[in-house]
Amino acid sequence: MDGQTDQHAGGTDWIPFHNEGVALFNAGRLAEAEERFRRVTELQPGRATAWLTLGSVRRALGRLNDAYTAFQQGLARDGNDRDLLLATGQTLLDGGRPKDALPYLQRVVAARFDHPGAALALGNAFMTSDSPEFAAMAYRLAMQLEPDSATATNNLGAALMSQLRMEDAARVYRRAIRLAPASPEYHKNLGCCLLMAGEFPEGWREYEWRHEQPVWRWKRSFPGKRPWNGEPIVGKTILVHFEQGLGDSFQLARCMRVLKGMGARVVFECQPQLKRILSGVEGIDVLVGHGEPLPDFDLYVPLFSVARWLGVTAETVPGGVPYIRPEPELVAKWRARMNLGEFRVGVNWEANGPERSIPLELFERMARIPGVRLYSLQKVKGLEQLERLRDRLGIIDWTAEMDAGPDGFVDTAAVMAGMDLVISCDTAVNHLSGAMGLRTFLVLRTLGDWRWIRPERLDTPWYPTMRLFRMARRGDWAEVMGRVTDEVARLAAEEKPAAGR
Fold first, then answer.
1. Gyration radius (Cα) of the chain, Å
2. What is the phi-psi region of residue 39: left when phi exceeds 0, alpha when psi lies from -120 to 50, beta otherwise?
3. How far apart, in whole angstroms, are the C-alpha atoms of residue 70 and residue 422?
4. Which of 74, 159, 257, 339 is surrounded by the fewest CB atoms within 10 Å?
5. Strand partners for 289
6. DSSP designation for 215
């Protein structure tokens, strides 16, 4: 923040407060700076720039609503002030309101066609509003104005990926890396793009940069121990430690058998709640929950890096489902409560993030198919939808009785074993279902996660019993769920004709 002042009408008694505020802001004493800037607005309430300064320090304090209020006060004095328009749009974007931000940022870009920061912010607002085509246009403008902007270049890569233009996205990501070769984020983004395109060897190498991101929470260090880099491991004890989500542990637990076959003693450190469900996975010599004491080992490797060093490609995914099996006693317990004459469909509709979650009401037509019965597999999230729609869907919900202790997914796996079909959005549930070798329909948005590979694929090498149903149009869950429902109706009529009479 600079100390420039605009000494127009109203005297100069406000200037000392302004200058003190600037000095305090630059010294990092934001709360005190806010008090000085607030005093300026009291002395000069008609000065739009005073409200801009007050709003800016509030934004720096993380008080986005208060910042927005100050910016609105400024715009009430001068509705065409470009700095106020830009600050308002950026604040709304920071607060998760990208569609509200768009009009402000569009006005700035229209008035200041030469402002790369405004073009970048506009692209971010379009991108967060799920409009990657318009986002790409804004990012290209930002790049024209500032050709060396690695940020705008990287963001353009993301916009192209969202349009399923993988080759173009990879080319742009490579340019971002040339501009900022030490950026782990840009390398990781290129890795995801290449993996999605099915270019595994280079994709794994670039994805390895994820560990250098400041935001990466799963980087581990074991003093005195060496990371495994693909060398022979005969006679060695190797520690594989989990990273990322529960579903990732389900997906790559299959690799333990391969490491065991290479002559290693395998220690797998998993999330504590998965220790019981993973206890029967072949190839694990010692299974440890995170936080428990580790046995001695020679080498360590993060979970996804195992896939890299094993040279996993779409053609060489370690096969053999099921490799996770439910406990027979629990299977019998839950199966005894089911109507085996019905076509039983286990459903999981909400993920971490609304963009991957299926509105539960879109299962209503499926629930009305004669002979079909839905069973809830949803835990924690999305239960408010179930309360609202329970009677309309006739859904059986035992989840309050399932996995009530510290061991996650043991009851869920047993219930799933009694289903004719599992339908899920992209969560740990679909990974578990695939790892169990169950018939599974995975319902994906237009741009799925990189692991589901090219967007035209309707199958996956990770799980041979899984079918992928992808959105035909971005954001259109109704259309893709219509196709899923039609297929359920066909299967129910073929396999349980008596139930539908």
1. 27
2. alpha
3. 51
4. 339
5. 270
6. T
